[in-house]
Amino acid sequence: MPLSRHWRRADLVYIQTVLMHIHTAVSHFLGLANMVNTANKFVLLMENQQCHNFVRDIDNLWNGGHFDWDDMHMYRLDRSTAARTILLSKTPQDYPVLTSDAQIRDGLKPSQRRLRRANEDSDRGLFGEPLGSSLGRVQLR
């Protein structure tokens, strides 16, 4: 379901190995948008980074206006247990900035099947008008 304004918000929204299993239509996009829009400060994603193009999809959702946040920063966090996570934050943090899926996948053994499916899933998205774009705007006189 799309986000309801009546749902409670949390400072941190955390998800682990859930979105990686969702490959129906655009459901993982809706899940990402709902997570960000229910978070006051942070979203932490611990997923198989080859199952979706998380960085690309998050960028597209952000640029398409699907997040309620005024500002968003994306970081890669690695932990000693080999956990690799994506941190989304409303404010700048002192972590390595994440800009691409190649960056989050660096050092992982590629799964061509998963990467092909991730591209197919990403290509289903229609994200709206990019931030700062004048495409499709009607000029009033």
Blueprint of the fold:
Layout: E1 10-16, H1 27-37, E2 39-46, H2 54-63, E3 73-78, E4 84-89, H3 101-105, H4 112-123
Parallel strand pairs: 1-2
Antiparallel strand pairs: 2-4, 3-4
Written description of the protein model:
- It is a single chain.
- 27% of the residues lie in helices and 19% in strands.
- The chain is α+β, with helices and mostly antiparallel strands and 141 residues long.
- Strand 1 (10-16), helix 1 and strand 2 (39-46) form a beta-alpha-beta unit.
- It is globular and about 40 Å long.
- 23% of the residues are buried.
- The model is unreliable at 133-141 (pLDDT under 50).
Output the keywords.
alpha+beta; 141 residues; 4 strands; 27% helix; disordered C terminus; globular; 4 helices; 4-stranded mixed sheet
